From TrEMBL:
InterPro entries: Bact_exopeptidase_dim_dom, Pept_M20A, Peptidase_M20, Peptidase_M20_dimer. It comes from Pelodiscus sinensis. Residues 124-267 form the Peptidase M20 dimerisation domain. Secreted enzyme that regulates the endogenous N-fatty acyl amino acid (NAAs) tissue and circulating levels by functioning as a bidirectional NAA synthase/hydrolase. It condenses free fatty acids and free amino acids to generate NAAs and bidirectionally catalyzes the reverse hydrolysis reaction. Some of these NAAs stimulate oxidative metabolism via mitochondrial uncoupling, increasing energy expenditure in a UPC1-independent manner. Thereby, this secreted protein may indirectly regulate whole body energy expenditure. It catalyses: N-(4Z,7Z,10Z,13Z,16Z,19Z-docosahexaenoyl)-L-phenylalanine + H2O = (4Z,7Z,10Z,13Z,16Z,19Z)-docosahexaenoate + L-phenylalanine; N-(9Z-octadecenoyl)-L-glutamine + H2O = L-glutamine + (9Z)-octadecenoate; N-hexadecanoyl-L-phenylalanine + H2O = hexadecanoate + L-phenylalanine; N-(9Z-octadecenoyl)-L-asparagine + H2O = L-asparagine + (9Z)-octadecenoate. This is Peptidase M20 domain containing 1. SUPFAM superfamilies: Bacterial exopeptidase dimerisation domain (SSF55031), Zn-dependent exopeptidases (SSF53187).
Length: 388
């Protein structure tokens, strides 16, 4: 059965100010290639093609077929790119043994007490709701304003959303698996804590709430991203509009989140329109028989011998891979790039970059992955090879 390597060539915008080099120049500076898309996700799009080139130069002839999918509109939902690729493969009756897309990385220095960089392979991704909120009110002269107007009503409603975060669901999603797989990587006494989450969950969940990147792992997040209102300083604003982006924790659904939103807003003057919504993605297999997982483990050992044990994780953003659920249940989101904490704000932010060595390692990983995937089936898990 074939597998698929997925990437996207499109990027989010970038304006010049704040960048050390022009954001679309791909200039090298201190061993880094700077540019919009260098880690999201041209590193994969070009990395896959370059690995393929190296294989072809060596007259390598893969025995296991594979697909390369490179979307061109991932950052605006993938409807015309990845979705069309998936639909075409579906009409051909294609099934995939696994699909590898962006969505997680090798984390270095994110978790206190873990010394080694740890590869986290996302086995699911959060759901999403993009909701538009609006309040209409009679226009008029600002010299005789009513007690409440559209801007104040909507702002108060959104403030209630922001001040009442969604419930902390630590322990009900794959974050537990992540910590259990990483427990051995933690130094004492964290290794004991991580191996006894039944006892220490309340402590850990409080710690996770402290930072946006870990808080996003344990609850549905609420981001008020757009607010437009008012037409002139002396006119009562006829309407106020806002957009909120929720990313739904794996143990919640769109419906449940919308219920909580309505109860929190609790104001019939606020209208809610759903622009786009989808539930959290299914959780991909993670066990000794999962072909993809074993291939990733083997390839990481080949290319990154010094990293810690591989752990399953959750992608807090969304990716094109969500369009391929009819072709496989083994969807994994992972780019073999080492991320330090200061790399996170660069994604969709300023001075996005990848080190030259980091890009070379990604190409090497893909070069190895294609060869490692060329086995017909997995060697028997070690335990089974001993006759009992
Ligand atoms: N990957 C981007 C764009 C995106 C949004 C929603 C769905 C799919 C992709 C994000 O997570 O925000
Ligand atoms: C690192 C997470 C990536 C989310 C998908 C994107 O922004 O392209
Ligand atoms: Zn992106
Ligand atoms: Zn991306």
């Amino acid at each position: 059965m074939p597998y698929m390597l997925l990437a996207h060539m499109d990027v989010v915008p970038a304006s010049q100010e704040g960048w050390h080099v022009p954001p679309f120049s791909a200039q090298e500076l201190d061993g880094f290639i700077y540019g919009r898309g260098t880690v999201d996700n041209k590193n994969s799009a070009i990395g896959i093609l370059q690995a393929l080139e190296f294989l072809l130069r060596r007259d390598y002839r893969p025995r296991r077929s594979f697909y390369i999918g490179i979307g061109h509109d991932e950052e605006v939902s993938g409807r015309k790119g990845a979705m069309k690729i998936a639909a075409l493969l579906e009409t051909r009756g294609v099934k995939l043994v696994f699909l590898l897309d962006e969505g997680s990385v090798i984390l270095d220095g994110f978790l206190e007490g873990i010394k080694k960089p740890v590869p986290l392979i996302a086995i699911t991704e959060k759901g999403s709701i993009t909701a538009n909120f609006s309040v209409e009110s009679a226009p008029g002269h600002s010299s005789a304003p009513p007690k409440e107007m559209s801007i104040g009503i909507l702002a108060a409603a959104l403030s209630r959303l922001e001040q009442n975060p969604m419930p902390n669901l630590f322990g009900q999603g794959p974050e537990i698996m992540t910590l259990e797989y990483l427990a051995s990587e933690f130094s004492f006494p964290l290794n004991l804590i991580m191996s006894n989450l039944w006892l220490f969950s309340p402590v850990i969940s409080r710690i996770f709430e402290q930072k946006p990147s870990t808080n996003a792992l344990i609850r549905t997040t609420t981001a008020i991203t757009m607010f437009n209102a008012g037409i002139k300083s002396n006119v009562i604003p006829p309407s106020a509009k806002a957009t909120v982006n929720f990313r739904i924790h794996p143990s919640q659904t769109v419906e449940e989140v919308l219920e909580i939103v309505k109860n929190t807003i609790a104001d019939d003057r606020v209208k809610i329109d759903i622009q786009e919504a989808f539930d959290p993605l299914p959780i991909s297999p993670w066990d000794d028989r999962a072909f993809g997982v074993q291939i990733f483990r083997r390839t990481l050992l080949d290319v990154f011998p010094d990293v810690g044990s591989v752990a399953p994780g959750i992608c807090i953003g969304n990716t094109d891979s969500r369009h391929f659920t009819n072709l496989t249940d083994a969807i994994y989101r992972f780019n073999p790039v080492v991320f330090k904490p200061d790399d996170v704000p660069r994604v969709h932010g300023l001075n996005e970059r990848i080190s030259v060595e980091g890009y070379e390692k990604q190409v090497e990983f893909l070069f190895q992955l294609i060869q490692n995937s060329d086995i017909s089936k997995l060697p028997k898990p070690h335990a089974e090879s001993h006759e009992l």
